[in-house]
Amino acid sequence: MFNNVTIDKGRWSGVEVNMPVVTAGGVVGRVVSTGPYSAQVMLLTDEKSGAGAIVGQLGQSNALGSIKGMGESGLLECVTYPGWKSPVGDTVTTTGQDLIYPPAIMSARWLR
Hints:
The chain is mainly β. It is built from no helices and nine strands. It has strands at 4-7, 20-23, 26-34, 39-43, 50-55, 64-69, 76-80, 91-94, 106-109. The strands form two sheets. The chain has a five-stranded antiparallel β-sheet with strand order 7-6-5-8-9, with no helix packed on it. A hairpin with a 2-residue loop joins strand 2 (20-23) and strand 3. It is elongated and about 45 Å long.
């Protein structure tokens, strides 16, 4: 499993370190280094990666926590306060509190 990827845009395209990388499907990761024509992206599934998150709708849920990568499995773990249970299939969205990922970007679906 890859924890970093190289993209074909770099400093000359305006890419900077710590910029979020987001696709139509949700959060992918953040830029960790740049060159003139390319950049390295640490995927959100990396064990050293993480983001502020909420399970359910931003502004309507009190399941505030964080998501972090689980490394080789390529999965994310969502950590919320103890004892909180979410319905399977709820969306996990970013909160913006980490100052890297913008708020309300879907990053996963709650599977447990």
